[in-house]
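RETRY 2/3 - previous attempt timed out on the joint model. Re-submitting the same 922-residue input unchanged.
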Amino acid sequence: MDHPHRVVIVGGGFGGLHLAKALARIPVRVTLVDRRNFHLFQPLLYQVATGALSPANIAAPLRAVLKRARNVQVLLGEAKGVDAGNRRLILGDGEVPYDTLVVASGASHHYFGHDEWAARAPGLKTVEDATDIRRRILLAFEAAERETVPELRRIWMTFVIVGGGPTGVELSGALAEIARDTLKLDFRVIDPGAARIVLVEGTDRILPTYPPELSAKARTALERLGVTVRTGVLVSQVETCCVELRTAAGTERVETRTVLWAAGVQASALSHALADTAGAELDRNGRVLVGPDLTVPGHPEILVIGDLACFVHGTGRPLPGVAPVAIQQGRYAARVIAARVKGRPAPPPFRYRDRGNLATIGRASAVADMGRLRFSGFPAWLTWLFVHLMNLVEFESRLLVLLQWAWAYATFNRAARLITGKELLPGPTRGPCSCGIWLGADTHGAPSRRQEASKRERAGP
Amino acid sequence: MDHPHRVVIVGGGFGGLHLAKALARIPVRVTLVDRRNFHLFQPLLYQVATGALSPANIAAPLRAVLKRARNVQVLLGEAKGVDAGNRRLILGDGEVPYDTLVVASGASHHYFGHDEWAARAPGLKTVEDATDIRRRILLAFEAAERETVPELRRIWMTFVIVGGGPTGVELSGALAEIARDTLKLDFRVIDPGAARIVLVEGTDRILPTYPPELSAKARTALERLGVTVRTGVLVSQVETCCVELRTAAGTERVETRTVLWAAGVQASALSHALADTAGAELDRNGRVLVGPDLTVPGHPEILVIGDLACFVHGTGRPLPGVAPVAIQQGRYAARVIAARVKGRPAPPPFRYRDRGNLATIGRASAVADMGRLRFSGFPAWLTWLFVHLMNLVEFESRLLVLLQWAWAYATFNRAARLITGKELLPGPTRGPCSCGIWLGADTHGAPSRRQEASKRERAGP
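RETRY 2/3 succeeded.
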């Protein structure tokens, strides 16, 4: 070989970053391509969205993390496609040749074919998503404080979270705490504690991947915080002033101005490029079906890891899209590459070591599923705290996050509740809604067309 | 009186916030109007722009700070004008009646009639400004790392800071440290330490409001960090690829893609409303000339404090637009209002107690002007540290900022260097510049029109 083996990694998430770190000890030349200049600790992103932490607390600049890995070059760029025949990764503004390609570009939320909902019901995948959700939550309370019509105030103070997985559970728990504790003394007109928080889940229980008894405990904990938990309910429409829910009994409408999306997972667009160029098979979420060594069948030089990969265990159920899977796959991919470069036999097939799952439900409450060991409440919360702190990449982040958690625990405060970005003031409270109904009395005191409309509806045929 | 005295404060900066806090003990009804939901500690904003701190570390939610001041209502809204005849503050979406109005809406940077420069040379007044500048600085290094033509790489690695006041001095010092220390090991192609940082000041010395010997010390400290200090130089043009400087010797061009604006102060637009409705006189920066009790002459019910006020001392020089002036004026305004409400004699005219000025120049270096006591270096830096920490509004912020400073001091790291917002990738390195010259060779390898153009220029008439 006249050049060192070139490994190109797409994505600096859990999988890509741990792979790059592991490759620092191996004689290969590594290029890590990411659109963002930082690794994001996504499990805590909901804490940014709810004003408990700052984005920088859970983000580590990729160049800083990898600065001593002298064989790793970080490249800020957008991977647009793959040319498997010529072994090149195609960027927005160039190409990068590879000998081994590892695609770890992850997944994003999706709207089940209703992309038009994205503007009204933001998901939580990026730092910008988190500060956008933070802005919407805080502006809803501000709008309620200024609104004089009680009916319209109630709409501002209703929050709907779609999706009862860990993100939805954690978001609704944090939101309930903000309303009940953090904002308790902040307003002069409204009582933030009267906010209505509705968590909507399509299956018959929240945290559906956990054991049923932990789902039940999580539900009880949320309800104690004042969250309305609706299971077996699908969202059939998202409008400016309401969401339409479909239940076994029919459809109903929940009036709200703030809908947060924590449902649906869609693989990054790069999986389609892999299907086109390398004949990769995709599952129904767009994830790439990989072999036992995480390679794309027929292309031993292309590996897929993390949320983008669909790795089917002996049991037949694909591994979930969680950080521990991505980390273990990243380390495994490094072993595969090392074996090839050094001419050693390939490692045995990848096996996921499930160390358990944790989800937190607000203050001092969580559920833990550690195989046979299942527990909840304060001990689970302490475990959650410790595991998340220890997995933050930078030691400084651990100190900062610990300090802020301790402070929030003692004072109920959430210091990072800043309204930032483009729209800084509450929007108009009244006006036409996308569902065709006029919201509220107009500013000249004319009778509410909306109320008339709903009267008509109720009278209906 | 059948209603309590209504005080309306515009602006939750240093002046407005300290006034509102002081009024909490007085039987008046207070409305504090601000566009933003937080008080911003502007003296540390350059640390957000240079990745040392997060926005939330220097921002305190107004509602949280004032939650126990039960007679103070915070109103998130934009003050658009004043109707002095009817004693009403006009908002974007309504009006607020007052008995006493205190305008503390501050000032922003201005471009000496060249508003078109704003897009190319952002100023530093808001949280969004700071994260925008942070993005531009980091993207410039990223673009340099990807650029292959050395001449173009040099342009990306040249930074021009306009304005040699405290903000410009602190920005250029921090930028030099980022280049020399923080990013030292981060890149594989460029040497960030080779970055060129040019500080441009129109008068004959930087920190012109400080004693000359401290200006000289600050200059030496900056030069030791590698900053090129240019005094007696005005900016006559800001283009995409360069700035044009006017010196005593003529004009010259500095090629750069990153210009930061730290010059010029312009009073908020509300001063013009006060001129129209209350006959207030404005100085050439648009500040409102106030009487000895901070009222608008002829309108004892309207006070102006902080950066928006032009208060002329016995000496004839107006007070500078710094935080201590605003804080003392806020407290004084509360005394004026208390005396009126309680029917007591008015307090003696406002007098500013100047406790000194501090400016920092990077790591462990600062200048302090405490009247007769003038010092620099490490002791000044410790004083700067202590004064700034103690003036942060929230105790939690003090701990968080102290922890991050200690960490940065020990490790040279700046953890908050995230590229966030809309444009996440470096823009095209080559293309037409607004000055009419084409930047760089085009992507098909044709000879550089820019180089040809500069050859023609050099050959000249």
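The first strand of chain A starts at residue 5 and ends at 10. Closing ticket.
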